[in-house]
Amino acid sequence: MIRPRKVSVFAPATIANLGSGFDVLGIAIDAPGDVVVAQRQAAPGLTFSMTTKHADVPSDAQSNVAAYVAQLMLDEFKIPFGIGMRLYKRMPIGSGLGSSAASSVASAVAVNALLPVPLDRRGLLRFALEGERKASGSPHADNAAPCLLGGACLIRKYDPLDVIPIPIKQSLVWVVAHPHTSIRTEDARNMLPKAITLQTAIRQWGNISGLTIGLASGDAALVGACVEDAVAEPVRANLIPGFAEVKEAALRAGAHGCSISGSGPSMFAVTASVRVAHAVARAMQKTFWGAAGIACDTYVSGINRRGATVRRVPPR
Question: Which of 181, 185, 212, 298 is catalytic?
Fold first, then answer.
């Protein structure tokens, strides 16, 4: 098979944790996401550039996670050509939607598509996790795995990494509200409790078990009940202006459950229909503005089963 010389890769946003599944559950959604365009070049090494409207995204190859992941792959595989890469950074960092994972995954998939002998998708996960390590100091997989593989993923354990795709029934509709503020993942992780009581652990275990069953069965009411988070939400909610009011508004508008997406500030809600989801999205957006004076983007999506997608770009 003739390998492409130029590709474009879209890597989707993700909702990690899903409330009770801290660091072990995540789903891919349809939008937003990042795009990487990569092509073979005669000169060895990596040529990196970026297009974005977000001023706080590192643009130099030493600091940007997309460039970092690409360079790791070039160093390991020692391919007989260089790669020119442009990152179209559409997601803001510190969004709680897996921004660094999207850039890392898009880069890994793009470079892989150009390799003479590409890896399978699971083989790319270790490179994406190194991007996560660089971004936040922790190689957590709950964003990177669903972004790369699509669907819903359970991270059973980290050493060694064991990622289990959850068979899902595509009947749930998810709402994401992204307020125009940011939270550093590292800061949000540092404020978590170092230990929890047995009672709290039992409550969390019950919720994550029910959440996994709800995803597999498409039971919106069960998923909504089980996104209850007894560990991270109680401390992280204080970082999100208007959190309590927005959550209440989502539930009043018909959501079965609502919590923090990743480390925030984005919030997600789960519903059983597109109609209700759009009503919930409007309520969350309106309440972020009314309660906290913060503008907000909203997204309505099913679970994205594809994950990162590759498009061959014909030469000009």
Answer: 185
| Residue 185 designated active-site | yes
The closest of 225, 220, 222, 259 to 243, measured between CA atoms, is 259
Question: How many whole angstroms from its chain centre is CA 27?
Answer: 8
State the span(s) of the chain assigned CATH 3.30.230.10. Answer: 6-166+304-312
Q: Does domain 173-301 have CATH number 3.40.50.720?
A: no
Amino acid at site 316 = R
**pLDDT band with cut points at 50, 70 and 90 for residue 1:** low
Burial class (CB in 10 A: 0-12, 13-18, 19+), 144: buried
- Counting every residue written for the chain, the total comes to 316
Q: What is the pLDDT of residue 183?
A: 87
6-166+304-312 CATH, one of 3.30.230.10, 3.30.1330.60, 2.30.29.30, 2.70.50.60: 3.30.230.10
User: What are the tens digits of pLDDT across the range 25-51?
Assistant: 999 999 999 999 999 999 999 999 999
Write down the pTM of the prediction: 0.94
Vertex 221, ends 219 and 223: CA angle to 5°? 70
- Examine the residue annotation and report whether 181 is marked as an active-site residue of this protein: no
